[in-house]
Write a structure and sequence with these properties.
Layout (H helix, E strand, L loop, with lengths): L1 H33 L5 H32 L2 H19 L5 H4 L2 H29 L7 H5 L1 H23 L2 H6 L4 H17 L6 H8 L7 H8 L1 H31 L5 H29 L1 H25 L2 H19 L2 H7 L6 H18 L1 H8 L7 H20 L23
Length: about 425
């Protein structure tokens, strides 16, 4: 289990490094470089628009790779998704800016960001199923949380490289070529990830399905026919986590550096410290879900988020590093109470024959609802000289929707991951 969990964590960290390094670049430099004819606000919105394309592609990737995972196995998904995302990320670092090739530059960004999202859409389902389907029932939450630590590691790695370059280079050097280095570094990380993943074994549950010829012929069709309500509820429930995470890590970086005049290095340091704490607390929250259940932690995290969004914006508005760090930390602790258990919770809601597709599509559809739109809506809502209370209202509204969705989902912790009802849902789950 430790070897499997470590391989899942490393691979997920590399994939999310690729995904996050684009978000940081979008917040800092992509607007002026690829949309120079736009006003500063419009350029930032356009850069976040290319950022959003990755989220739109993720559900499509989860359909494509989910089909492979449910038909051919979880292991091929891990290798193919890592390779696709890595190649697209390296290519982003090679795209000339608008001044060199004109409108072709942002179009290439859109295409490569789409391919990034396509690969990441397949990564999550393969990684969490590898650990969840190998894990012992009583500790499934803990072991399945290892891939959920990957995003924090990937974020810290991506922003650590950006922070080091930002501090070491002049602003002109960073905008000229420095921002490209983290994208090129993805090539080395992908090679490391592939070496780790090629030695992994297929999960016992998929091997059993294949041996008994019980694999779904068209997994997406089965999910849409039998589990459409469950799919919509999980997407709505998880949308809040995406909204909060990208409000903290992407929108606040842009807002604080451009509107409040906070030094870029200081702001990255505040965000990275809060994300590091989130990563440390992920297995703790997951272990609690093995003891007290998945749903209670998710409901608590939603409630805390709804109550904390206005105080977080007030703390951000001060521009003081310690106060901003405190605001971000509480928000991400609430976030981790929801997302630490997701890797165990979503697979438990689906039967093995459609699990890769159902869990991955629900998870990545939430990314469109919460992650793709948040930086754009927040940037537009923060326009003006006053405090961005519209951002707090938006996040609180998303929190209320997610709270209702979580309340309508069943508890799954006592249910063995392979013990499902004939129609495919966990006992008592919506179908």
């Amino acid at each position: 289990m430790l070897r499997l969990a470590a391989a899942s964590l490393v691979g997920t960290a590399i994939e999310f490094y690729d995904f996050f390094v684009y978000g940081t670049a979008a917040a800092l430099v992509l607007g002026p470089l690829f949309f120079p004819t736009f006003s500063p606000l419009a350029g930032t919105l356009a850069a976040f628009g290319t950022f959003a394309v990755g989220f739109i592609a993720r559900p499509l990737g989860s359909v494509l790779f989910g089909h492979i995972g449910d038909r051919r196995g979880r292991r091929p998904v891990l290798i193919a998704s890592l390779l696709l995302t890595g190649v697209a990320t390296v290519a982003v670092g090679c795209v000339p800016d608008y001044g060199a090739i004109g409108i072709t530059a942002p179009l290439l960004l859109l295409l490569l960001r789409f391919l990034q999202g396509l690969g990441l859409g397949g990564e999550w389902g393969g990684a969490v199923l590898l650990t969840a389907e190998h894990a012992p029932e009583g500790r499934r939450g803990l072991w399945a949380s290892f891939p959920q630590i990957g995003p924090a590691v990937g974020f810290l790695l991506a922003n650590g490289v950006m922070l080091g370059l930002s501090a070491a280079l002049t602003d002109a050097q960073f905008r000229s070529w420095g921002w490209r280095v983290p994208f090129w570094a993805a090539g080395v990380l992908v090679i490391v990830g592939l070496l780790l993943r090629t030695s992994l074994a297929e999960t016992p549950q998929f091997e059993e399905l294949a041996a008994q010829s019980r694999r779904a012929k068209v997994p997406l069709a089965e999910v849409a026919r039998h589990h459409w309500r469950l799919l919509l509820l999980t997407a709505g429930a998880l949308a809040l986590g995406y909204a909060v995470f990208y409000a903290v890590t992407t929108w606040s970086l842009s807002y604080a550096t451009e509107r409040l005049g906070v030094d870029r290095t200081v702001m990255l340091g505040c965000i990275m410290a809060a994300v590091a704490l989130k990563g440390v607390l992920t297995p703790v929250a997951a272990a609690l879900s093995d003891r007290y259940g998945r749903r209670p932690l998710c409901l608590t995290g939603c409630a805390v988020t709804v109550l904390w969004m206005f105080p977080m914006i007030a703390l951000l508005r001060t521009g003081e590093p310690l106060l901003m760090f405190f605001g971000f930390t509480v928000a991400l602790i609430a976030f981790v109470m929801m997302f630490a258990v997701t890797a165990a919770y979503l697979p438990e809601l689906y039967e093995p024959r459609v699990r890769c597709t159902g869990a991955a599509v629900g998870y990545n559809l939430a990314g469109v609802l919460g992650g793709a739109l948040t930086p754009i809506i927040a940037t537009a809502a923060a326009h003006g000289s006053g405090a961005p209370w519209g951002v707090a209202a938006y996040l609180s509204g998303v929190g209320l929707v997610s709270l209702v969705c979580f309340a309508m989902l069943p508890e799954t912790r006592p249910t063995p991951v392979a013990d499902k009802t004939a129609d495919g849902a966990a006992e008592g789950a919506p179908a």
